[in-house]
Amino acid sequence: MIELEERNLEKKSFFNRLVLIYFFFGILFSFFIYQTYSLQVSSFSEYTSASLKNKTRDMLVQPARGIIYDRSGNILVNNVPSYSLIIKPWKIESLDSFISSIGKIISLNEKEMNYVNENFKKKAAYNRELTVKSNLTSEEIAKFEVRSYKYPNAFIDVRYSRQSKYPDLFSHAIGYVGGVSNDQLSEIFSEQKLKQIETLYKYSNGYLIGKTGIEYTYDNLLRGSFGKKTYEVDAAGRFLRELEYNLL
Questions:
Q1: 14: pLDDT confidence band, cut at 50, 70 and 90?
Q2: In the 8-state DSSP scheme, what is residue 200?
Q3: How far apart are alpha carbons 189 and 105 in whole angstroms?
Q4: How many Cα atoms within 13 Å fall on the side-chain side of residue 20?
Q5: What is the number of alpha carbons within 13 Å of residue 82 lying toward its C-beta?
Q6: Residue 224 phi/psi, 5° resolution?
Q7: Res. 95 pLDDT band, cuts 50 70 90
Q8: ∠ Cα 79 84 89 (to 5°)
Q9: Is 51's pLDDT higher than 60?
Q10: Which of 42, 48, 66 is nearest to 225 (CA)?
Q11: Contacts of 179 (CB under 8 A, 6+ apart)
Q12: Beta pairing, strands 56-61 & 199-200
C-alpha cells in the first residue's frame, strides 16, 4: 500500500515537472513566433527602411560660387577651372611604387607627399578618392594624359578657383574669399538645415566664403545651395557605386 502511494506521488511529481517543462517551451516557442511575426509583418517596413539607410550613404556636393557681373553684364569675378591629379587608393597595391612612377612626370613636394602618405590608408579603407596634387600646369597635364594608360587608377579632374578680372582696379570693392573654420561651416549647414556630413568640394582650396567687399556682403547669395550624391555602400561603409545626384 505504501509502495503504491509512493509510486502515485512520483507519477504526480513527474507529471508536474513535465507540465512545467512544456509550459516553459511553450512560452519560448510563442516568443519566437512573436519575433518572427514582428520581423516579417508588423515591423517589416521599418526594418526595410533601416536596411536601405545602411545600404546607402549620402554625401553633400559643394555648390559653384556665383559669378559677379557689372551693370553692363561684364564678368568681374569668375570661377576659373584648375586641374588636380586624383587617385583611387583602394585599387593601388603599392603606394611607394605609384609615387615613384608618377613622380617622374609630375613632381610632388614634401607637403604633398606627406598628405598622401597620411591619408592613403584611410581613404583606401572606405573607397574614397584622394587628391595627390592640385593646380596642375598644362605641361603636367599633357605629360600625364599621354601616359594615362599606365595609370588606370589615377585621373585628372577639374576643380575651381576664384579669379577677379580686374584685381588691381576693383580689389577693395569686390573683396576676396577664403577658407572657413569648422564652427563657421557648422553654422552654414545649420542655416540650410543640413547635417554636417562628408562633403565633395569643387574648389581646390575647399569650402570658400566671402571675407571682405562684395564677396562678403552678398556671401549668402553667392554661396549657393549644396547638392547631394547618394552612393551604394557595403557593410564596411566602402563606396560601391553612385546611385543618384540631386540638387537640394
A1: low
A2: E
A3: 40
A4: 6
A5: 19
A6: 80, -175
A7: very high
A8: 140
A9: no
A10: 66
A11: 205, 206, 207, 208, 209
A12: parallel
Angle, to 10 degrees, between the axis of helix 110-125 and the axis of helix 95-102?
A: 140
CA distances from 174 to 35, 103, 202 (A): 65, 39, 22
Q: Which amino acid, one-letter code, is at 180?
A: V
- Would you state the pLDDT for residue 151? 95
Scanning the structure block, which residue is given the C-alpha cell 593601388? 92
DSSP state of 41: I
Interatomic CA distance for residues 192 and 179, integer angstroms: 19
Cα angle 229, 230, 232 (rounded to 5 degrees) comes to 145
E-state strands within 165-219: 177-178, 199-200, 209-210
Cα separation, 35 vs 62, whole angstroms: 44
DSSP H/E element including 155: strand 154-164
Residue 198 has pLDDT above 90, yes or no: no
Tell me the pLDDT tens digit for each residue of 151-188: 999 999 999 989 998 888 888 899 999 988 888 888 88
Please give the model's pTM, rounded to 2 decimal places: 0.66
Binned at pLDDT 50, 70 and 90, residue 96 comes out as: very high
**Who has greater pLDDT, 36 or 161?**
161
* Own/partner pairs, 198-202, CB within 8 angstroms, 24+ separation: 198/57, 198/59, 198/60, 199/59, 199/60, 199/61, 199/62, 199/226, 200/59, 200/60, 200/61, 200/62, 200/229, 201/62, 201/159, 202/61, 202/62, 202/63, 202/64, 202/159, 202/160
φ, ψ at 241 (rounded to 5°): -165, 155
- Per-residue pLDDT band for 97 (boundaries 50, 70, 90) equals very high
